[in-house]
């Protein structure tokens, strides 16, 4: 069992890092966007492996179905579509590499220093989705409602920001 | 399956996301980097919650982060559109009015 | 102990002293007025000068009559003060000698002004001449009136300056310029001594006020070879040195041996100037200075004065014997007579010396002005006869009594006065001088045979010589034939014209003053003279002085007076007869005189060249100094200039080096720091690139550092 879980974990985490690497190194925006989809899918698989089925589903619905589409729309709206592809370049590469690598080294070192084996694991008897639904409407009701309001405000705000305005108010 | 592997994966995704944020010129790409970073954080929450599935606090955090990410993406894209309308570009190195 | 500050209280001004100041300032005023007169108004300058000096003379005569034989009047004000020293005062000290000198200077100055109006007529420097006469008179009056030795010194130098200006009046003549320079420089030699004397007195007494000096000198004492005055003490020889140094000043001005060389050359100036400066006033300033400081002179210093005086009297008389220039004879005679006066001062015959100063002032001024009249007449003659000859050379004269009778009489009278014939003024004063000298020799040698007798003996010999050269001059100028007319065979109808009346006026007044009865009711006995009886010899106040010395001197002088008179008259007769024998008209000398060149034997050459003093100075002082200066110049150009050149080159090299260091190292440092700061600025500027991502990156750098800090 342990092995059965580990193998897909390695596969999906490797794929996730690979897709992330493509985002990092590609020059084409659309490649980047699609690699992001790949990454999200792999991460969703990781969530499943970590026994967070509901989060994985939400990940698929929100990220892959919503955010990525939104991003691709953004790409389309801000670039002229030509046959050359939507190219972007990068800069600050040296600084970025140093920061990223050194941060990774530090985190890696820190993670290795912590002994997570001491943490005792506990299993739930309840269905995950069921449990989340119950808790969402009982214990996490207030954050849930606030999240709804936040989403509404974000929706309004984004439409206000990007919407057309009359000549008089537009600076 | 110990949590360290999740954390290391999360750290790797986080660092790649960070590198994307820092190096990419296009604003949409920067937003993608931000999504990567948020995913890395979510992996951490979920991995921590994996050891104690009784309370599911970590998963809730991950859920709320996804909600916030959606809002963030919407507002961020709106801002990018506005920027594009104003500067006629989304290349961030050309938008340097903060320059001292 | 006396506090010098108490002696220097300001003294109130009286009517007399204010009038004195007026007399002093009138000639200065004349100088200023003439200086600002336009050049076209040259005639007016003479009238200004004459008017001012006439007023000054009238005031002086008034002062003399009012103040004669009164107590001395002394007024002064504080000039300045410094430190803890007593204040420096300046004022007017009016006593009998000062009053007399005042009259002599102003009257003779007036007469010279009067004479000059005719003599200088048509001269290009007419205005300048009268201006400088005013300046000279002012300076001379300053010497007479000042109560302070330093103020006397200041006017003393002013006199030197104005004398320089007047001697070089004809400044287109090389000889006149040289003579003026010579007079000035030789006088400086004496003035160095003068100022050293002042320094000694100042360091000892801290004041130079004459009256205060007298009191302090009397209060000073001598102990163990030290001369003590208050807190100051120096060794005893300084007491004598002070007197001798003051005398050095007088030596320069009064043309005493060895500084007498300037006076004959000074005859280059206009003749009235010679009369004023080199007969009556400036040369007498030295004698007058001695009279002022007489109480401060020690016996040794006085002895020095007496020796120098007698030697000068003798040398001057010898030098006068063989001269051909009419003014040179008078100049040497003046030197000789000044020697007499200083000899008189030296032997303690203060009154006699001053008496001779006054009588001499008048008869010598008369002689000079007569000579001036002769020169003027001969110039006029040369102009009309259209020939050129030296109007001052006696070889060109002769027989002038027929053409210039008035001048002849004036000349004769003053010559007789100079020789010392009874009934004339010179007899009285010279007799008094010789009596004093003889008495001094008696007293000093204590009636044993001693070198002290040389002083009166030289005096007696000088009497012979004076008679000799004056009779020679009289004979050569006024008797015999008019040589220039005979030799150049000029037509007989061109004659020498008599001089204008202004000259005659001046001459007559001066000649009148040469008669003995003006000065004494009994013209045979000087001791009955109103002058000498009025003039009291001041007591010598030098410490360590035998109080009876001066009394003994007076007694002895009265005692031997008869002897001296007989001897001197005898001497005069000898001199006169010898002169008549040698220089008589139609004599061998007179006939060959026109073609005579210089002198014929060693002794005459010695006389003609004034003892070769000029040559001696030239060989022993001027030449060595010139050689030395040439050597020094050589040293300067060769060694010092070279050294300085090298030093300059070294400096230039050093300058280049430092410039290099400056440009490359110092500038380099500055440039480097600027460059460094610039780079740092660029780097930090790049951080502020306005790019949000860079800010994020840097923020993460900070976070990284933070995490490092926490983990380790």
Automatic annotation (TrEMBL), chain A:
| Primary enzyme class | translocase
Pfam families annotated for this entry?
Oxidored_q3
Name the Gene3D superfamilies for this protein.
Answer: NADH-ubiquinone/plastoquinone oxidoreductase chain 6, subunit NuoJ
Q: Does the keyword Nucleotide-binding apply?
A: no
Keywords tagged on the record: Cell membrane, Membrane, NAD, Quinone, Transmembrane, Transmembrane helix
UniProt-recorded name of the protein:
NADH-quinone oxidoreductase subunit J
Q: How does it sit in the membrane?
A: Multi-pass membrane protein
As its record notes, the protein acts as a catalyst of:
a quinone + NADH + 5 H(+)(in) = a quinol + NAD(+) + 4 H(+)(out)
Compartment(s) of residence: Cell membrane
GO-annotated cellular components: plasma membrane
**What Enzyme Commission number(s) apply to this enzyme?**
7.1.1.-
Q: What does this protein do?
A: NDH-1 shuttles electrons from NADH, via FMN and iron-sulfur (Fe-S) centers, to quinones in the respiratory chain. Couples the redox reaction to proton translocation (for every two electrons transferred, four hydrogen ions are translocated across the cytoplasmic membrane), and thus conserves the redox energy in a proton gradient.
What GO MF terms are annotated?
NADH dehydrogenase (ubiquinone) activity; quinone binding
Q: Which family does it belong to?
A: Belongs to the complex I subunit 6 family.
Q: Which organism is it from?
A: Fulvivirga sediminis
Bilayer-spanning residue ranges: 7-25, 30-50, 56-79, 91-112, 146-164
UniProtKB/TrEMBL annotation, chain B:
Q: What is its EC number?
A: 7.1.1.-
GO-annotated molecular function: NADH dehydrogenase (quinone) (non-electrogenic) activity; quinone binding
Member of which family?
Belongs to the complex I subunit 4L family.
Q: What is this protein called?
A: NADH-quinone oxidoreductase subunit K
Recorded topology in the membrane:
Multi-pass membrane protein
- Subunit text: NDH-1 is composed of 14 different subunits. Subunits NuoA, H, J, K, L, M, N constitute the membrane sector of the complex.
Question: Lineage of this protein's species?
Answer: Bacteria, Pseudomonadati, Bacteroidota, Cytophagia, Cytophagales
State where the protein is found: Cell membrane; Membrane
- Catalysed transformations (reactions): a quinone + NADH + 5 H(+)(in) = a quinol + NAD(+) + 4 H(+)(out)
- Predominant location of this chain? membrane
One GO CC annotation: plasma membrane
**Transmembrane stretches, by residue range?**
6-23, 30-48, 60-84
PANTHER family in the cross-refs? NADH-UBIQUINONE OXIDOREDUCTASE CHAIN 4L, NADH-UBIQUINONE OXIDOREDUCTASE SUBUNIT ND4L
Key words of the record = Cell membrane, Membrane, NAD, Oxidoreductase, Quinone, Translocase, Transmembrane, Transmembrane helix, Transport
Q: What Pfam families is this protein classified in?
A: Oxidored_q2 (PF00420)
Q: What does this protein do?
A: NDH-1 shuttles electrons from NADH, via FMN and iron-sulfur (Fe-S) centers, to quinones in the respiratory chain. The immediate electron acceptor for the enzyme in this species is believed to be a menaquinone. Couples the redox reaction to proton translocation (for every two electrons transferred, four hydrogen ions are translocated across the cytoplasmic membrane), and thus conserves the redox energy in a proton gradient.
**Any one GO BP annotation for this protein:** ATP synthesis coupled electron transport
TrEMBL record, chain C:
Protein's name according to its UniProt entry: NADH-quinone oxidoreductase subunit L
Q: Which organism is it from?
A: Fulvivirga sediminis
Q: Which controlled-vocabulary keywords does the entry list?
A: Membrane, Transmembrane, Transmembrane helix
Identify the main location.
membrane
Keyword Repeat (UniProt): no
Using the record's annotation, list all stretches that form the NADH:quinone oxidoreductase/Mrp antiporter transmembrane domain.
146-441
Pfam families annotated for this entry?
Proton_antipo_M, Proton_antipo_N
List residues traversing the bilayer: 12-37, 44-65, 98-122, 129-146, 152-171, 183-205, 225-252, 273-295, 301-322, 329-350, 362-382, 403-424, 458-480, 501-521, 562-583, 692-711
Q: Specify the NADH-Ubiquinone oxidoreductase (complex I) chain 5 N-terminal domain's residue ranges.
A: 79-130
Tell me which Gene Ontology terms the entry assigns under biological process: ATP synthesis coupled electron transport; electron transport coupled proton transport
**Where is it localised?**
Endomembrane system; Membrane
- Gene name of the encoded protein: nuoL
**Gene3D superfamilies, alphabetized:** 1.20.5.2700
Q: Name a single GO cellular component.
A: endomembrane system
What InterPro entries does UniProt report for this protein, alphabetically? NADHpl_OxRdtase_5_subgr (IPR018393), ND/Mrp_TM (IPR001750), NU5C-like (IPR003945), Proton_antipo_N (IPR001516)
GO MF annotations for this entry?
NADH dehydrogenase (ubiquinone) activity; NADH dehydrogenase activity
Q: Does this entry carry the keyword Membrane? A: yes
Which taxonomic lineage does the organism of this UniProt entry have? Bacteria, Pseudomonadati, Bacteroidota, Cytophagia, Cytophagales
What is the membrane topology noted in the UniProt record heading this document?
Multi-pass membrane protein
């Amino acid at each position: 069992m342990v092995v059965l879980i580990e193998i897909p974990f390695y596969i999906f985490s490797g794929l996730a890092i690979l897709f992330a690497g493509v985002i990092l190194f590609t020059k084409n925006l659309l490649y980047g966007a699609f690699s992001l989809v790949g990454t999200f899918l792999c991460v969703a698989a990781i969530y499943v492996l970590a026994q967070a089925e509901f989060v994985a589903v939400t990940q698929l619905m929100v990220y892959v179905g919503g955010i990525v589409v939104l991003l691709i729309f953004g790409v389309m709206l801000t670039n002229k579509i030509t046959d050359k592809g939507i190219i972007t370049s990068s800069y600050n590469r040296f600084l970025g590499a140093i920061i990223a690598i050194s941060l990774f080294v530090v985190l890696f070192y820190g993670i290795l220093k912590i002994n997570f084996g001491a943490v005792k694991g506990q299993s739930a008897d309840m269905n995950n989705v069921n449990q989340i639904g119950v808790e969402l409407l009982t214990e996490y009701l207030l954050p849930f409602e606030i999240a709804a309001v936040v989403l509404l405000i974000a929706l309004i705000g984004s439409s206000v920001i990007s919407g057309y305005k009359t000549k008089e108010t537009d600076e | 399956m110990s949590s360290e592997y999740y954390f290391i994966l999360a750290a790797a995704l986080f660092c790649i996301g960070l590198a994307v944020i820092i190096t990419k010129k296009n604003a949409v790409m920067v937003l993608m980097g931000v999504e990567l970073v948020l995913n890395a954080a979510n992996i951490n929450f979920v991995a921590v919650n994996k050891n104690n599935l009784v309370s599911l606090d970590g998963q809730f955090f991950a859920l709320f982060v996804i909600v916030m990410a959606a809002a963030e993406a919407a507002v961020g894209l709106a801002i990018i559109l506005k920027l594009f309308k104003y500067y006629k570009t989304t290349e961030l190195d050309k938008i340097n009015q903060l320059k001292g | 102990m006396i506090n010098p500050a108490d002696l220097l209280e300001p003294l109130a001004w009286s009517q007399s002293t204010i009038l004195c100041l007026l007399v002093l300032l009138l000639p200065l005023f004349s100088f200023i007025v003439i200086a600002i007169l336009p050049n076209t108004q040259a005639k007016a300058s003479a009238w200004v000068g004459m008017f001012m000096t006439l007023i000054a003379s009238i005031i002086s005569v008034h002062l003399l009559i009012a103040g004669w034989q009164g107590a001395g009047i002394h007024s002064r004000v504080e000039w300045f003060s410094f430190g803890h020293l007593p204040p420096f005062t300046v004022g007017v000290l009016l006593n009998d000698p000062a009053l007399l000198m005042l009259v002599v200077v102003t009257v003779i100055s007036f007469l010279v002004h009067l004479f000059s109006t005719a003599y200088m007529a048509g001269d290009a420097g007419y205005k300048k001449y009268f201006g400088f006469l005013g300046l000279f008179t002012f300076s001379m009056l300053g010497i007479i009136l000042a109560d302070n030795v330093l103020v006397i010194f200041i006017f003393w130098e002013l006199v030197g300056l104005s004398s320089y200006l007047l001697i070089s009046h004809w400044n287109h003549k090389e000889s006149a310029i040289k003579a003026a320079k010579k007079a000035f420089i030789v006088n400086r030699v004496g003035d160095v001594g003068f100022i050293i004397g002042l320094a000694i007195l100042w360091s000892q007494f801290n004041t130079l006020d004459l009256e205060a000096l007298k009191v302090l000198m009397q209060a000073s004492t001598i102990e163990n070879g030290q001369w003590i005055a208050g807190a100051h003490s120096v060794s005893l020889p300084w007491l004598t040195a002070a007197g001798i140094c003051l005398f050095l000043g007088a030596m320069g001005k009064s043309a005493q041996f060895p500084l007498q060389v300037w006076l004959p050359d000074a005859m280059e100036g206009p003749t009235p100037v010679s009369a004023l400066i080199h007969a009556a006033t400036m040369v007498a300033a030295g004698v007058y200075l001695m009279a002022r400081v007489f109480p401060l002179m020690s016996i040794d210093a006085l002895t020095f004065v007496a020796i120098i005086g007698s030697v000068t009297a003798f040398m001057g008389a010898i030098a006068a014997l063989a001269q051909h220039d009419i003014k040179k004879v008078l100049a040497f005679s003046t030197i000789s007579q000044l020697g007499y006066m200083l000899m008189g001062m030296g032997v303690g015959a203060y009154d006699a010396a001053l008496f001779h100063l006054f009588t001499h002032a008048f008869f010598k001024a008369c002689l000079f002005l007569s000579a001036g009249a002769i020169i003027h007449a001969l110039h006029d003659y040369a102009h009309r006869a259209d020939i050129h000859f030296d109007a001052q050379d006696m070889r060109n004269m002769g027989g002038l009594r027929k053409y210039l009778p008035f001048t002849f009489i004036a000349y004769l009278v003053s010559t007789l006065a100079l020789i010392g014939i009874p009934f004339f003024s010179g007899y009285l004063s010279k007799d008094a001088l010789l009596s004093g000298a003889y008495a001094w020799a008696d007293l000093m040698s204590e009636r044993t045979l001693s070198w002290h007798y040389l002083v009166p003996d030289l005096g007696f010999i000088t009497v012979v010589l004076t008679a000799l050269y004056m009779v020679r001059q009289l004979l050569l100028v006024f008797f015999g034939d008019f040589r220039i007319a005979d030799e150049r065979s000029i037509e007989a109808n061109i004659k020498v014209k008599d001089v204008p009346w202004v000259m005659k006026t001046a001459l007559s007044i001066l000649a009148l003053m040469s008669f003995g009865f003006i000065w004494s009711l009994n013209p045979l006995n000087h001791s009955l003279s109103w002058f000498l009886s009025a003039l009291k010899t001041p007591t010598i106040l030098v410490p360590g002085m035998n109080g009876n010395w001066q009394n003994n001197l007076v007694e002895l002088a009265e005692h031997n007076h008869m002897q001296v008179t007989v001897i001197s008259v005898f001497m005069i007769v000898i001199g006169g007869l010898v002169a008549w024998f040698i220089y008589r008209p139609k004599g061998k000398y007179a006939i060959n005189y026109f073609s005579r060149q210089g002198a014929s034997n060693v002794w005459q050459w010695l006389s003609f060249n004034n003892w070769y003093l000029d040559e001696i100075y030239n060989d022993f002082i001027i030449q060595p100094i010139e050689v030395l200066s040439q050597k020094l110049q050589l040293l300067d150009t060769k060694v010092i200039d070279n050294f300085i050149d090298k030093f300059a080159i070294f400096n230039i090299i050093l300058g280049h080096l430092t410039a290099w260091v400056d440009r490359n190292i110092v500038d380099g440092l500055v440039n480097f720091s600027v460059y460094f700061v610039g780079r740092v600025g660029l780097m930090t500027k790049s951080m502020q690139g306005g790019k949000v991502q860079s800010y994020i990156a840097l923020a993460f750098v900070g976070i990284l550092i933070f995490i490092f800090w926490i983990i380790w």
